Amino acid sequence: MMNSGGLVSEGKIPVPLKSISVDVQVQGHVVTVTSTLQYVNEEERHLEALFVFPLPADAAVCHFSAKIGEQEIVAEVQERQSARDQYDDAVSSGQQAFLLEESAESSDVFRLCVGCLSPGQNAAITIIYVTELAVQADHALRFCLPAVLNPRYTPAGSGGGIVSEISSVCGSVPYSLTLSVHVSSPNPISKLESNCTLDPLVFLNSEHTHATVNLSPGHMFDKDVELFLYYQNTHQPTAIVEAGVATDQPGSLMGDPVVMISLYPEFPEEVMSSLGSQGEFVFVVDRSGSMDDMMHHGKGAQSRIEGAKDTLLLLLKSLPMGCYFNIYGFGSHFESLFPKSVLYNQDTMDEALKRVKKMQADMVGTEILQPLKHIYNQPCYPDHPRQLFIFTDGEVFNTKEVLDLVKSHTHSHRCFSFGIGEGASTTLITGMAREGSGHAQFITGSDRMQPKVMQSLKLALQPAVVNISVKWTVQDGITVETLSQPINVIFHGQRTLIYAHLKGESSGSSEGTVTVTYSLKDQPVTNQLHFCLKPTEDTGLAVHRLAARALIQSLEQQERAGGAGMEDIKSRMVELSVQAGVSCVHTAFIAINKDSRQTVKGPLLQRRVPTADVSGVYCYQGPYQASLDNDLLLKSSLSGMFSSRRSGSFARCKSYVNAKFVGACAGIIGFKKSLKSNKGFPVQEQKSGIPQKVTALFSSRYETSAVLSGQEISQGKQEVDVELQKDSLLQLVSLQKASGCWDLTPTLAHVFGKTEDELTNQKPAEVNQSVWATLLALIWLYGCKIKDQVEWQFVAMKAASWIRSQKVCEIEVPERLIMSYDALRTFGTAQRCRQVPVRQATEQEILLAHSEEYLEAVKQTPKMTEEQLMEFSKKYNDVYFHQNIYHCAQLAVGATLQLVDSVMKREVRNGMALVRPPGHHSQRSAANGFCVFNNVAIAALYAQKNYSVNRILIVDWDVHHGQGVQYCFEEDPSVLYFSWHRYEHQTFWPNLPESDYTSIGKGKGSGFNINLPWNKVGMTNSDYLSAFFHVLLPVAYEFDPELVLVCAGFDSAIGDPEGEMCATPEIFAHLTQLLMPLAAGKMCVVLEGGYNLKSLTQSVCQTVQTLLGDPAPRLSEHSAPCVSALDSIANVRTAHSPYWSCFKHLDTNSDRSIKRRKLEEKNGGAKDAKPLLETETKKKMEDIVWPEPLPRSSPALRTVVAPPPGVEVALPVGCQVLGEISKSASDVAQKIRDKLFQDASDQKMLQPLGNIISVLDQMKSKEVCNGCVLVPDLNVSVQCSVEHALTSLAKRVLIVFIGDGKLPVDTTDGTALLVQICSEEAEEEKSVNHVSLCLRIGESFTAGFMQIVLGLLLPLAYEFNPYLVLGVVEEGKWKTLLPPVWGHLISLLQGLAQGRTLALLQGYDKDLVEVTAAALSGAPAPALGALGPPKPEDFQAMEKQRQRLQKRWGLLRCTVSES
């Protein structure tokens, strides 16, 4: 082996490789890399250069050429030995020859031989390979250009082949690198990061789907170059069908199409939230001499072995109680911590930690095979699946033998591998994970080992997926041959790749389907992807070559397994390699310049070109953030995330002591940011409520980076009893018990920069010391180490679980906000929002809604003793004060006001504030129901004062009545307050008569307070929607608010122990969607209640995703509202009929008295359509199970518009003109035109029909969400749309038609629902799926139109539950009157069919087109102004239709008599 001293000739002449130029072409998830190596012979004799270098393990090398002067020689793929012989013959005869071959020992090592370079001669060698980009835990796509190739440890007498020829150099290599990257993606590029310095990222189009970037000049190729690409919507399943080579034989791999399928399975949330607690965890650590090398040479670097030791500490602390574990170290020999895996408990964990602390890199070589054999020979524990974690720098010689061993035990374990440092063998690391059904990670440069290992632990704790099968469904005449190795592992959110060969032809449908089925926790799961069999793009045979490489790897495994037919397998590999032009272990690239024969005197000088050893200074180039369009970036805001926690006590707490204890520890979920300095917790920097008692603990003496060991602790002068690590996080983790708790010790106090006495003195008297210590530890983690959460997430989960086991409180737990925010981050939702900084509210702001006397009283609470706090709390209903409640409440109000500022200044379109304590029960001079200050009431008054807002709508969907908000505004006509709440005829808290529907406001505020009492539990989605359709929305549109505030209590969702309702989390997406057209989209959602963690987190995610503009999810089928809900709705409408025009024409004569209904419910209840909770209330609410909300995704492009040829349209953000129509869409359009037109020569409809088919096809493939097509003929266009949609896209189609014509739509089979609004009386329809209403033109047109939309169209549409919405407008209809109301209609319909809406507009009306495009793209709907009463005849026409249809369509009912 050559060392650094042998890299120059005797005359100190440098090696001949001068530079490497690399061009990287990224297309989605596939990358093509072109490397050009410049050689020059500066010596006086002929020269042969040898260069052993690394490539990615799964790369398909597909091109090799040499350019000598102006002459280019392209290499051919030939059988390996034949290629070698030709090379030797050519060189010996004086010909220039070039040989490229893959190592037989490791597929990530290649040898390049450049033979017979004449003195002074230049040669440019070009190598091209394709590979897949690996998906990282943060959804980045990783590309690595390897430079470092560490020498492989080769025991004496074992041989080593090419890997034994590796040359490395310490210090800089004598050649440089230039690199250019071009990225092309169907999804917008968010950012690009690198471990090297890059020039600025340059976008090549406005959609940010094409970009370039270059490596900064002067880079010496002395370390791996890593790029991390971030796309929007990365986790979309995709299928790429690539055409074969036309000149190749049909039936061959290269002559036929090949498909690459990318799937991203998503496991149900309940599976992910209940990670496994059983298992056998075996940690195998490389202790060879090379593990003493530094991870990098930058500041603060540690050795590889020290990093491994720190990681083992974190792993051991994160293991679940009751599992088994063991630790192995290996080098030239191996040893284990225990003879066999032992039960994880405090004693075994302590013993393991002692041994880990003494671990050194002192075992010489790197022989991993024997320890693996020993592990596999140990019997497995029943019900404890074996999980193997292997840490190595990858410097082994027998890679393929190791992989074969792992594969032979794939059914008895999962293997998670970690390549440490530059140059770790990608073949070994990725291969062990692949063969062991696990996951691979590489830790390079300044990467911390711990987060990547903990990401893998999270995967290991996922339930194993078994019985995986792949099924292809294609038309007759086509067969599918899967080329990839069988799928043996599936992880949540991780990419699964499948390559397949498509053989044959079919004249039928061009669509195929791949279905992956598997079992997860004994439940069958199916993932399915539909794809077009027609090639979709030119990918330059990249997919064919990757598919060929996958098949070759599969054949190579069969060959290594031995047995009969080995020669046939080898022949097949060589044949496939030659045909595809892709190298394999049995072939090589050979190129000979036959015109270069020269006489060579004496032997050739041989020069070995070195690769870099791990050296040099590593730098990190910050992320290149794509400059997203402001409207998209600012569309939503998450203000005050973790602003503060609910303070005080709770109705479900066992006692005052428990209640006050929970409040005193309120900051457990509060911390959002790390400390900025050693000045404590600056209020303007924090995003959470931090109890003042806890805040005081972390005084100015605390420094997060301080080295604490060896210092004395003041006041007690106690010495720390153990040596503390320098890393403050590891200091804390090392002190945690196996059960998950911490003890209150001097050592723990020292981590916080405190004394034990200081911690103890702040502890509430009734609280156990371990509980207090554990809470402080969690507070510190969330406050000081939030950026490292991935490292300590399991430590915190154990701690939180331990705290829950102490039975502190039944419903208000720290996880309420932790899990809400984690859920938002898990689904990538939080990252898409703009986070608004939080501040404390001023006293003047609080006084907007509260009295000076009350504020002064609350301000005194931080100074009160526990006894005084107890007496103070007795003054109020269901609130228990503690010393930091004032601080928490100030932050909650401040966060809400910051959100209002952002929305009113149009910095964001809308937003949600996750704040604690809640506020809607708080009154002017009294705290109430966990609420101290009334966040939303203050926000409304603040908006009126600072932004001159004249009309504010407050919607309170919490399950408790917000009486504090009602009292604040009951005489104010500028604020419309709507609240639904559990009431049960005044038997449910707060048990107030003014919570009933009869409380309508006072004085000038009469009619502006709407209470909708729920007098039964078990209300469903249908009940909630009916309340919106028949009460809230009609009044809200008539009120015409300028700002919408939502008291968002999710205790009204299913499973909540307070509400006991049955509305699913998805309903809040729809309620939010229905409110968004109001107030030009200005909406602030503020968290109130919610006590079932599952439904709370799901509901929060659904709400925020809708605020961001994601298509609303499909709801389950609807039925009629229950009798009790109809009773309440009818009573509210009657009570408010004197005040609102929308209720003016109601028949207020009730057929049954309130008293009678109350009596019936008291005696068992009126006969209800859905007595859902008659039996459900017998079991605990937390035992109720409901379906997991399906993942929501938004296409990269929301809206396309297809105008007539030559017409230019001004389009909003998120909207584009439809591109060129595909051939398949044109073919379908041609067939439909021929079918519908007798005169087949008529061409005028061909282009519009093609546009329609193209938009619908793009909706199906999720390329777009919706679209607008301008058409000349409505009849043909609608027929085309319905026919094509029902064939390939939708089960049911809703058609909303504005016009007087008669559309040719068949509604008799129930697949279509047609609602027509016309200006002329139409023939009365008998079908319940065909509704026609006549609307007169006049001053009341807008009011009449919206009355029809809200009271008739929306209930029909939601109950019909379409898969596609067609909005159709006849040319010239209502001219200037139509566009504003049409914009609102389109916006309101966006909640249906997952946003799939196709607008067909006849002719060209500029205003109508622009309004339609804006509504489809999610822009705010145009202002309508305050609505007056509809014409009586219009109202009667609607009522007539409602009466006709309500028997079939239950959501149309709004009185008990109609049920």
Principal-axis shape: globular
Q: Structural class of the secondary elements?
A: alpha/beta
Cα-based radius of gyration, to the nearest Å: 35 Å
How is the main sheet built?
8 strands, mixed
Strand content: 15-25%
Helix-residue proportion: 25-40%
The oligomerization state is single chain
Average pLDDT confidence is 80
Topology, number of strands: 51
Please provide a written account of the structure.
The structure is a single chain. By secondary structure, the protein is an alpha/beta fold. The strands form 9 sheets. The chain has an 8-stranded mixed sheet. Strands 37-36-38-43-42-39-40-41 form an 8-stranded parallel sheet, with helices on both faces. Strand 20, helix 3 and strand 21 form a beta-alpha-beta unit. The longest helix is centred in the middle third of the chain and has 20 residues, at 542-561. Mean pLDDT is 80; it is low at 1-15, 148-159, 166-172, 599-605, 607-726 and 1150-1179.
